[in-house]
Write a structure and sequence with these properties.
With 175 residues, the chain is an alpha/beta fold. Helices cover 34% and strands 14% of the residues. The chain has a single domain, classed as Lysozyme-like, CATH 3.40.80. Strand 3 and strand 4 (73-75) form a beta hairpin. The protein is globular, with a radius of gyration of 14 Å.
């Protein structure tokens, strides 16, 4: 994975409208950290996922805070609001969701997307006052809440396994 400073990835904003099915405006009960997901849909960059959440804000309840790919990050919810993403009330009420846009799950694209997700997780954790990422204390897999095989590629070790991903988050936190 790449070496990068905490300020090197641009975060674009396209917030889901407040008061819609997808965004109630309810505040997180507690800031436990981040939950990592993979979109599970090929051929869609981060911007497409953000636009889909925005354009279909009354079609579904589920949502997520950030989508990241190999070149950019899109934020759809404020850091202090609930998004229905984890499959369990506790996960939704306490974590910020990062969705990795897996338009391709191989090669340099995927390595950069996962690296940017690690950078983003560190950036969020730093915003919330965390100095170290610890699995099930302030960084979770979607699987930890729901049992779903997500983030599937990272769980398979593509391009890194979960322990290496958390280690990369910690490298960025220390930068």
């Amino acid at each position: 994975m790449e070496k990068k400073k905490m300020t090197e990835v641009k975060i674009n904003e396209l917030f889901v409208p407040k008061g819609t099915k997808r965004r109630s405006g309810k505040k997180l009960k507690k800031d436990n950290g981040v939950c990592i997901h993979e979109a599970g849909t090929s051929s869609a960059p981060a911007v497409n996922h953000a636009k889909n959440q925005y354009n279909n804000c009354n079609a579904a309840v589920n949502g997520w805070h950030f989508t990241v790919d190999d070149v950019e990050v899109w934020q759809s919810f404020p850091l202090d609001e609930v998004a229905e993403h984890s499959g369990k009330r506790e996960g939704n009420d306490t974590t910020v969701a990062i969705e990795i846009a897996d338009k391709v799950t191989a090669g340099e694209y995927w390595r950069k997307a996962v690296d940017n997700a690690a950078w983003l997780a560190a950036w969020i954790l730093r915003q919330k006052g965390h100095t170290k990422a610890v699995h099930k204390q302030n960084i979770w897999q979607h699987n930890d809440w729901s049992g779903k095989d997500c983030p599937k590629q990272i769980r398979k070790g593509n391009p890194v396994n979960w322990a290496a991903f958390v280690a990369k988050v910690n490298e960025y936190l220390a930068a």
